[in-house]
Design goal:
By secondary structure, the chain is an all-beta fold. It has two domains: 142 residues, Hexapeptide repeat proteins (UDP N-Acetylglucosamine Acyltransferase, domain 1, 3 Solenoid); 35 residues, no CATH class. Strands 1-4-7-10-13-16-19-21-22 form a nine-stranded mixed sheet, with no helix packed on it. A seven-stranded parallel sheet has the order 2-5-8-11-14-17-20, with no helix packed on it. It has a six-stranded parallel sheet with strand order 3-6-9-12-15-18, with no helix packed on it. The mean pLDDT is 95.
Length: 203
């Protein structure tokens, strides 16, 4: 049985009381993890990252420098979040009420972004809640995601649209005709149907 490693938290990071940080997780310089957030074992939180209260991250995620993950976002196991990515949480953002009084936390209802296992979000992308990024999907750098992304989809642009498919290793799939796609790196075979893409055979 392997011994669980204690989390590694930089001296300059702020991890509030009530945050849960799993074994072997790493939290780097000037990151801020709010009370009530959950960071899974082995997950790496880069410099300057903000993790809101109630955010849940699974195991072995990588959240790169300066990403802003606002509550109530959910990241499943193995999610990659590139530098300066933003997950929003407010459908109707306003600083004040109609009478110009400052809004409080009670004046709005937070909605979250959900990222399924193995998916990756490229640098400086913005995911506008509520959206769901499917398993193993890939959001190209600089994209604005305003609608759900299917599993294995490669999306790009503002607003982001599907421009292809990717396999589990993140490489764009090659069209072999008749709804069949192959990963040129791993050899995995995928099949496209009305429900999207699924793995047919593993190399």
């Amino acid at each position: 049985m392997t011994e669980e490693r204690a989390p590694r938290i930089a001296d300059s990071a702020q991890v509030e009381d009530g945050a849960i940080v799993g074994a072997g997780a790493q939290i780097w310089h000037r990151a801020h993890v709010r009370s009530g957030a959950e960071i899974g074992g082995g997950t790496v939180i880069g410099s300057g990252v903000y993790v809101g209260p109630g955010v849940r991250m699974g195991r072995n995620c990588k959240v790169q420098n300066l990403a802003l993950v606002y509550e109530p976002a959910v990241l499943e196991d193995g999610v990659f979040v590139g530098p300066a990515v933003v997950f929003t949480n407010d459908l109707n953002p306003r600083a004040v009420n109609p009478d110009m009084s400052l809004k409080s936390a009670d004046d709005w209802h937070a909605v979250g972004v959900t990222v399924r296992a193995g998916a990756a979000i490229g640098a400086r992308s913005v995911c506008v809640a509520p959206v769901e990024i499917g398993p193993w999907a890939l959001v190209a750098a600089g994209s604005t995601v305003v609608r759900d992304v299917p599993a294995f989809a490669l999306v790009a642009g503002s607003p982001a649209r599907r421009i292809g498919w990717v396999g589990r290793v993140g490489v764009r799939l090659v069209d072999e005709g008749n709804g069949r796609w192959r990963c040129p790196s791993s050899g995995e075979l995928y099949v496209e149907d009305s429900d999207g893409l699924r793995i047919e055979a593993q190399a």
